[in-house]
Amino acid sequence: MEQLIYFDYAATAPVRPEALRAMTDALRRFGNPSSRYEYGREAAQRVKADRETVAGALGCAPGELYFTSCGTESDNWAIRRGAEANRRRGKHIVATAVEHAAVLETCRDLESQGYEVTYLKPDKAGRVGPERLAAALRPDTALVSMMLVNNETGAVLPVAECVRAVKAFDPAILFHCDAVQGFLKTPGPLAGLGADLVAVSGHKIGAPKGVGALYVKKGVRLRPLLTGGGQEGGLRSGTEATAQIAGFAAAVRANLAQPDRLERTAAIKEYALSKLKQAVPRLEVVSRGDAPHICAVALPGYKSEVVVRVLGDRGVCVSSGSACHKGRPSHVFAALGLPKPWLDGVLRLSFSPESTREEADALADALKDAADSLFTTLS
């Protein structure tokens, strides 16, 4: 494979050089942050500084931020413990039907434990508005979960407005937001959404896999996720993953050092969509994506998994949806009510500020060749 053309940043991003350097330094300075001698205290100070960096990007106090292993863990912790904290209110949960599997599978598990979950279908643009959410609330609603950016369509959901609607109904209802695809990919600090619990992940922004965080708004009380030595304020015990945390903070700083990153990403996405339509006129745009980095297209009459494989053989990386589907049909695109030929041929494209026009041209050429070569067998 001569060259890698990568348009699957929603699945994961390359580790940034700044993150790699920070991780290497942290691995060399191997002190345990809980140790009382100087080497341990130095490690604790580095974790403290890294927490301040990530919290600052979220717009919250360092004491409201808890490091986890990934976005899935953060979502699980928020939903399970959030529902438990409000169990005296009732056992009703509201979530959108287009949430990530980390949310939906957690809700389904809670259903098996006696909870009732209302799944709200989106409109054709992939959004759920505050009016529909408010209509689903009940006196026994304990928790609401709504993502900020859909990981397959790029739709930005009106989380801030929905938080206000929920709190107007009853301030005691907890609001969880999966912001894994929104962290540093949308304008404004995430704590400003007003949600009680916000989950983020490191590897979507150039940090290593294996680190995430959960913002827990001051005043919200959750039981510990892990018990043991009392790390993370006693809520998530276990020796801190100092190298991953250092990489997370370094990736945050690197993103913030690119104030035009959102505009650059949006520009290359629009260029790519234009080139794709020129190269493959039969291609349909399923979602242009409100977020700057994600969009979805479809080749009606083709099988997306076949197209993805053919493009991959040419060194062009795209996906047919969330990486967590592992080849299964996308519940997100199904919820949009797409015609079956579209549904079968959906492709998700995702971009970064480093994506180039030359790469977009190569994508368009590769997709045109794939469509031409596969047409006779899949039409």
Provide a descriptive summary of the structure in words.
It is a single chain. By secondary structure, the chain is of the alpha/beta class. The chain has two domains: 17-256, Type I PLP-dependent aspartate aminotransferase-like (Major domain) (Aspartate Aminotransferase, domain 2, 3-Layer(aba) Sandwich), CATH 3.40.640; 259-378, Aspartate Aminotransferase, domain 1. Helices cover 40% and strands 14% of the residues. It contains twelve helices and twelve strands. The chain has helices at 17-28, 38-58, 71-85, 101-111, 130-136, 159-169, 242-256, 261-279, 304-313, 331-335, 340-344, 357-378; strands at 5-6, 65-68, 92-96, 116-120, 141-145, 174-178, 197-201, 212-216, 284-287, 294-298, 316-317, 346-350. The strands form three sheets. Strands 2-8-7-6-5-3-4 form a seven-stranded mixed beta sheet, with helices on both faces. A three-stranded antiparallel beta sheet has the order 9-10-12. It has a two-stranded parallel ribbon with strand order 1-11.
